[in-house]
Amino acid sequence: MKIIFALLLAAAPLSAQSFDPHDLQGVWTGATITPFERPPEFAGKEFLTPNEAKALEAKAADSRVDAPPKEGDTGSYNQFWFDSGTKVVKSFRTSLVTEPKDGKVPLKPEAEAKRDYNTAHNSDSYEFMSVWDRCITRGVPGGMFPAGYNNAYQIMQVPGYVVILYEMIHNARIIPLDSRPHLPSSVKLWDGDSRGHWEGNTLVIDTTNYNDKGWIATSAATGRIKGVPQSEALHVVERFTRADRNTINYEVTIDDPNMYTKPWKVAIPLNRESNYQIYEYACQEGNRAVENVLSGGRAADKK
Question: By the number of CB atoms within 10 A of the CB, which of 26, 58, 67, 89 ranks highest?
């Protein structure tokens, strides 16, 4: 009987075998073609049908075929270098934003005005440029939002700590789990001050003490919230729940009363990628973006 049980267990798919819900270690990826906010064509529709999901995935596959740039447009990287995902999220949601129910981030007019000002003055000074372009950080939680490439995260656990290594910008985030209080409110950080604890099978990470220099999102994949500043009032609560052997359900609640009319939530499944190799993201080495953008701005001023 023991032999039969062992054979059945070995034959069962990995997702059906038991796992420790408190073990989040491994390399996980969050790339998806699901829009960050709900697009107009799905207004009032929270979930896709299977056929709609297939159509979106087919369209994404077609768009990966390289096309020549338009006349006068040198373009960006060609599709060979992108790795923005091929599938919608498993839940078939029409947006990664889950609250409010309309799938839209509840931006205040002041937040949109600051975003637009930064965009308009992008080539005037480095202080208006993306903190990602400047190789500082993609932020917390912005570093978890899907981008065009490098959507991998390595999670490590040691006694009293969880460490999240972000492939993009190669940032290692060290989160204590020993119930220590947050840093004094006078200490302000680019990625805030994180403290973690377990609520049942969910790792909860509470982050405060932000400075007012970062952005909530830096990737074009986040649409209209790219470039929205974070304020010192930003409060972020992340939840990592192991759904099965190959999936972590990531959910984050974002509250910044200076930028949003109310708190909002994003949910992203993280998929295990055992064979994924994370290489160093050497952002500063050979990065001429800031220099070139600002020199282009000065040339425009002279003209």
Answer: 89
